[in-house]
Specification:
Blueprint (H helix, E strand, L loop, with lengths): L7 E2 L3 E6 L2 E6 L2 E4 L2 E6 L3 H15 L8 E3 L18 E5 L2 E2 L2 E8 L2 H10 L1 E2 L2 E2 L9 E7 L2 E2 L8 E2 L2 H11 L4 H25 L2 E12 L5 E4 L8 E5 L15 H9 L9 H19 L5
Antiparallel strand pairs: 1-2, 2-3, 3-7, 4-5, 6-7, 8-15, 9-12, 9-13, 9-15, 10-11, 13-14, 15-16, 15-17
Helix pairs in contact: 1-6, 3-4, 5-6
Bound molecules: adenosine-5'-diphosphate and magnesium ion.
The site of adenosine-5'-diphosphate (ADP) has 15 residues, from β2, β7 and β15.
Length: 290
Amino acid sequence: MQELKPIKEGKVREIYDNGDSLIMVATDRISCFDVILNNEVTKKGTVLTQMSKFWFDLTEDILPNHMISVDVKDMPEYFRQEKFDGNSMMCRKLEMLPIECIVRGYITGSGWASYQENGKVCGIELPEGLRESDKLPEPIYTPSTKAEIGDHDENISFEQSVEHLEKYYPGKGKMYAEQLRDNTIALYKKCAEYALSKGIIIADTKFEFGLDENGNMVIGDEMLTPDSSRFWPAEGYEPGHGQPSFDKQFARDWLKANPDNDWTLPQEIVDKTIEKYLQSYEMLTGEKIK
Ligand SMILES: Nc1ncnc2c1ncn2[C@@H]1O[C@H](COP(=O)(O)OP(=O)(O)O)[C@@H](O)[C@H]1O
Ligand SMILES: [Mg+2]
């Protein structure tokens, strides 16, 4: 069997070209503070891929998505190996729109820092008196442009997103910017409400959209995973300070507490990390990862 080479190797995901489609593989690698750690977190890739699948299915009524199949039987023979089983998604190839669509339902992280400085998040005025981790009166859409490798993404206003899209799609900037915003808010609202009913707060997340061969907008990339979102347990949620999260919290905390580490986690921390990923999957879907 001929070995295939990914056309793109990210820190965590690998993307293979498959003619009309792509195959996106979420590996078990874990990155913290933008460094790939030496450990593999067994099943993490499967959790990420299956969680995206769950959300794509749940939101089909709002907007089409790029998912074709997560069954390796539908994929070329090379992918019918154990290391691709469960963590691979065959996707429609899209022309990705050059905006990262961020939506925030709660105030935290860089948004909280900016609010303390000037009462705004990405130029959007927020009510006075918010505490760290407070729920916002309405979710806010805060787009950014995707930075070149190594650079940080740049936050932009809605108006700047219109101008940015206009450069790539003359005459259509406003239409696409509005569609991105409206789809982002609609997807977030439906999924955040669902997640809350299962005991998980989705504090914020990022979506990426593209155009299909007919020019229709489709959601691509990964969807509402702990890598693209902040998930907090609803139990014990308390504004006024940061919240524990369902992702790499244990790994990050350990690395910070052990500054002379060589980017290798003790097995106990790896075990706790995967336990959190599995727990969030089971709470959301009511199913166990196979
Ligand atoms: N259906 C799709 N068609 C084409 N490109 C896609 C599709 N879904 C996601 N992408 C792109 O694939 C890439 C995924 O790479 P990723 O590992 O997340 O690295 P990064 O986000 O750093 O570019 C992103 O550039 C994303 O925009
Ligand atoms: Mg990405």
